[in-house]
């Protein structure tokens, strides 16, 4: 096989339902490809509604016992999960790079990041505190309890195959929920490996189920219509998020939606330009620009526009493009042909509307889905790449005159996930932080993701928070008990 791991058991080609590794009912499979060369890596079961229903039933049956454990007992399993992920970090990273394409160094960081959610939420599970509220009339006291919402369905994307799942699983399992998840069909092996480790960590059968298949709509339909599911948590596109929300309306399921973004990255005249360039590279080019918090539009103030552009081009020029498994790569391939076509279309549209190419702007000589890291100057709000997520290694620089214009440009989008800005002016730092319409702000930093902070968006980037104590609360219901007769 093409994938050699030191623990070959972590590479599963079956789905996980009720503690059993299984095939699809009719035995159908779908192939998983390495985006670096397009070759087949292996297969996973091609499941649909029937298998999903069984997985949900298993999660439903496992719920009372899992919810009934003490927080400490659940935390012990999650802690073992964390330890196992770090112990097998290299295998997990190789598996991820093989199916997703990102450079190994990024895959290793992602495994540590994904694992951190199990550690954090295990610890926080012990702090699922309620309250005692003084009574409103004589002889009454008021209690609040936090209880797990129940069976959770989780649908995750291909860009962070391990971390997007870790965030959801860590919180849900810590709270006492049981889970059925559906990883993206491009990257199912990372999820299945977590299933294997969860089993080794001592997670009881049925508490975590993993369904794979290419008919996402059929699996999603079962998840959203099955009354045993009490919450849907989704990370992916805004279009699919809206559809899932509509499907959940009938049953009023709880929802967490982490959807697309269109992050502004503002560089003010008073910024530390070298720091801003480093932040822009980290934010824009991580995972070849395929992250939902990627800087999508670089807004640069007049006075430093040329200086910033020159420094940025010099830094982007040093990025090495190549297969993720090679240690000499900073930029892997895009996930598939569709992603490549979108990047090409955005660049062509920008050039047609007057943008100037400073670097890149075409497919990479390596072929396949590799694209050259690209910098475009004099981009404007009317260009597609200023309006939609490009999800590729393209940095368009827009120009602005003053703070007011920067804020107006930054907020001129239906999305509101992340926003970044660089300034050394304290008052401006406050003003702009408060004015940006987004769920997360990077002030003088391009990297904002951590398990201890609440990750999530506003506007059409969705709602709900992942990470932090807020992330745990999103998997709980508040019950209030009115205690009378005292
Ligand atoms: P991306 O552009 O990142 O592929 P998607 O929103 O299409 O964004 O995919 C994110 C996840 O949503 C994937 O796991 C995908 O299989 C799943 N998905 C896509 N369409 C549907 C659907 N109609 N119902 C449920 N899940 C879906």
From TrEMBL:
Active-site residues from the entry: 258
CDD domains: ALDH_F5_SSADH_GabD
Listed transmembrane segments: none
Keyword flag Oxidoreductase: yes
Organism: Thermomonas haemolytica
Keyword Oxidoreductase: yes
Keywords annotated in UniProt: Oxidoreductase
PANTHER family assigned: SUCCINATE-SEMIALDEHYDE DEHYDROGENASE, MITOCHONDRIAL
GO biological process annotation, one example: gamma-aminobutyric acid catabolic process
Entry-linked PROSITE patterns: ALDEHYDE_DEHYDR_CYS, ALDEHYDE_DEHYDR_GLU
Any one Gene Ontology cellular component term annotated for this protein: cytosol
Family statement: Belongs to the aldehyde dehydrogenase family.
GO molecular function: succinate-semialdehyde dehydrogenase (NAD+) activity
InterPro entries according to UniProt: Ald_DH/histidinol_DH, Ald_DH_C, Ald_DH_CS_CYS, Ald_DH_CS_GLU, Ald_DH_N, Aldehyde_DH_dom, Aldehyde_DH_Superfamily, Succ_semiAld_DH
Aldehyde dehydrogenase domain boundaries: 21-481
Protein name as catalogued: Succinate-semialdehyde dehydrogenase/glutarate-semialdehyde dehydrogenase
């Amino acid at each position: 096989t093409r994938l050699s791991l030191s623990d070959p058991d972590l590479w599963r080609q079956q789905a996980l339902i009720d503690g059993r590794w299984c095939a699809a009912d009719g035995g159908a499979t779908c192939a998983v490809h390495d985006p670096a060369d397009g070759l087949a890596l292996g297969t996973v079961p091609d499941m649909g509604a029937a298998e999903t229903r069984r997985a949900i039933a298993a999660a439903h049956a496992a719920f009372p016992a899992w919810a009934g454990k003490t927080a400490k007992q659940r935390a012990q399993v999650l802690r073992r999960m964390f330890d196992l992920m770090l112990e097998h970090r290299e295998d997990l990273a190789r598996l991820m790079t093989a199916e997703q394409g990102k450079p190994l160094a990024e895959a290793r960081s992602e495994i540590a990041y994904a694992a951190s959610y199990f550690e954090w939420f295990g610890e926080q599970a012990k702090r699922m505190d309620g309250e005692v509220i003084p009574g409103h009339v004589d002889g009454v006291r008021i209690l609040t309890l936090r209880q797990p919402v129940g069976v959770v369905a989780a649908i995750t994307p291909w860009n962070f195959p391990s971390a997007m799942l870790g965030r959801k699983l860590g919180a849900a399992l810590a709270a006492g929920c049981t889970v059925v998840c559906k990883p993206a069909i491009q990257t199912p092996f990372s999820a299945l490996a977590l299933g294997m480790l969860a089993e080794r960590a001592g997670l009881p059968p049925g508490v975590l189920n993993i369904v794979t298949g290419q008919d996402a709509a059929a699996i999603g339909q079962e998840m959203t219509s099955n009354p045993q599911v009490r919450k849907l948590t989704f990370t992916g596109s805004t279009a699919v998020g809206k559809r899932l929300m509509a499907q959940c309306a009938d049953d009023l399921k709880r929802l967490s939606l982490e959807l697309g973004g269109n992050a502004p990255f503002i560089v003010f005249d008073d910024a530390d330009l070298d720091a801003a360039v480093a932040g822009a590279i980290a934010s824009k080019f991580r995972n070849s620009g395929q992250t939902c918090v990627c800087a999508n539009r670089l807004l640069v103030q007049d006075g430093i526009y040329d200086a910033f552009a020159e420094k940025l081009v010099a830094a982007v020029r040093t990025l090495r493009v190549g297969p993720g498994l090679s240690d000499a790569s900073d930029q892997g391939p895009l996930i598939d042909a569709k992603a490549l076509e979108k990047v090409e279309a955005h660049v062509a549209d920008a050039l047609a509307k007057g943008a100037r190419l400073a670097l890149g702007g075409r497919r990479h000589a390596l072929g396949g889905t590799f694209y050259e890291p690209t910098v475009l100057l004099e981009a404007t709000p009317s260009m597609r790449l200023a309006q939609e997520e490009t999800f590729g290694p393209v940095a368009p620089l827009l120009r602005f005159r003053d703070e007011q214009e920067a804020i107006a440009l930054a907020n001129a989008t239906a999305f509101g996930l992340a926003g970044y800005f660089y300034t050394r002016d304290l008052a401006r730092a406050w003003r702009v932080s408060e004015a940006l319409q987004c769920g997360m702000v990077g002030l003088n930093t391009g990297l904002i993701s951590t398990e201890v902070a609440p990750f999530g968006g506003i506007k059409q980037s969705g709602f709900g928070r992942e990470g932090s104590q807020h992330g745990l609360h999103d998997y709980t219901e508040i019950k209030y008990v009115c205690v009378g007769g005292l």
